[in-house]
Amino acid sequence: MNFNLLNLKVFGDSRGKLISLESNKNLPFEIKRVYYIFDTVPDQERGKHAHRNLEQLIVVMDGACELVLDDGKKRETVWLNRPDVGLYIGKNIWREMRNFSYGCKLMVLSSDFYNEEEYIRDYNEFLKYINH
Ligand code: T46
User: Fold this and answer.
1) Residue 49 appears among annotated catalytic residues
2) Candidate of 46, 68, 87, 92 to mutate for ligand 1, largest count of ligand atoms within 8 Å of Cβ
3) 72-128 pLDDT, tens per residue?
4) d(CA 120, CA 2)
């Protein structure tokens, strides 16, 4: 399936830890947008859409959440709970985000600017799109 868990290189010493993310180096795309999600609550789901062309890297900076990934043939669940692991999601993957810890903080690096036209927010439409 077109997703991958990336172990990010950590520069750590007695002062703490640092991770650097660079376009087309340790990230497989050029970063055009960064957004973040915070103040999450456990009983609220997010996502439930796919992107036609967008690639993203999701890093949980604090807390934890579950990502369900679906390519129309199978579903896999990934638990994200550490800032040194990034979830790369390629094109045409349906994603659902759930079981957030209270106040989980996610940073998302994105290969393109925000464009609502590029989202597929209906699961049946997603299935039709990938099987066309
Ligand atoms: C994704 C997951 C991981 C903007 O105006 N600009 C932006 O860059 C984004 C990402 C969102 N928005 C607006 C659109 C909605 O009115 O913010 C509102 C909430 O967005 P949405 O309901 O799409 O949020 P999530 O958490 O369900 O999904 C987001 C991203 O949209 C999506 O690309 O992969 O996070």
Assistant:
1) yes
2) 46
3) 999 999 999 999 999 999 999 999 999 999 999 999 999 999 999 999 999 999 999
4) 17
Q: With a 6 A CB cut-off, is 56 part of the ligand 1 pocket?
A: yes
pLDDT in tens, 2-59: 999 999 999 999 999 999 999 999 999 999 999 999 999 999 999 999 999 999 999 9
Query: How far, in Å, from the CA of 8 to the mean position of ligand 1?
Result: 24
Q: Please give the model's pTM, rounded to 2 decimal places.
A: 0.96
